[in-house]
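User: What would this chain look like folded?
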Amino acid sequence: MLDTVREVHTPEGVALQLPAAGPVPRAVAWLIDLLLRGAILTVGAVVLGMVGRFGSGLNLILVFVIVWAYPVVFEARFGGQTPGKRAMSLRVVAADGAPIGWMASLVRNLMRTVDMLPFGYGAGLVASFADPWSRRLGDMVAGTLVIHAPRERIRLQALEVVAQAPAVPLRAQEQAAVIAFAERAHTLTPERQQELADLVAPVTHARGERGVARLLGIANWLLGRRA
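Assistant: Here's the prediction, encoded as structure tokens.
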């Protein structure tokens, strides 16, 4: 199946192009994560096995964490990317392009138990071929989408700005609009950047160049770039 593009229009009039990832790159990313988790569990079993019965108990906890918490924590805390997705330049986002939250990540990963039926992710594969944006059942239920997200998607202009939390809570559509601005800022003139940034001065509490920098900082914060 060929990758397709999902276009989302925010209330602010921003058109987001979300390049949905097909089954093949997603499968490769899943395999990378599987190998990584397998390596962690193998090393953990060997090390904890030396501790005796107490170590066996800790190993059971480790297995639970790696199997269930691994994808949820990475997706919700690190910009929708597990190590496998990062290696394949993929990202999980909300259906409207906003960053994925904890609940959505939990739901989509719990639904893997259904996607895996009857075996080998059969149900999930059938669903991904039937859906225009290659979503498995877990994505449909959680309202999420896996997209291509090249490492250089946010250009240097945004990356140089320190991440800053927004002064006021942002709705999902507003978050998507901020990220879209950061992605396209390098294609705009400084005057146009400031003009757009001034429209959201109530959010940035700044205008002009400071408003642009503040908006780029918020985008980095939304994408999990806390460093």
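DSSP finds twelve helices and four strands in the chain. If you want, I can go into more detail on any region.
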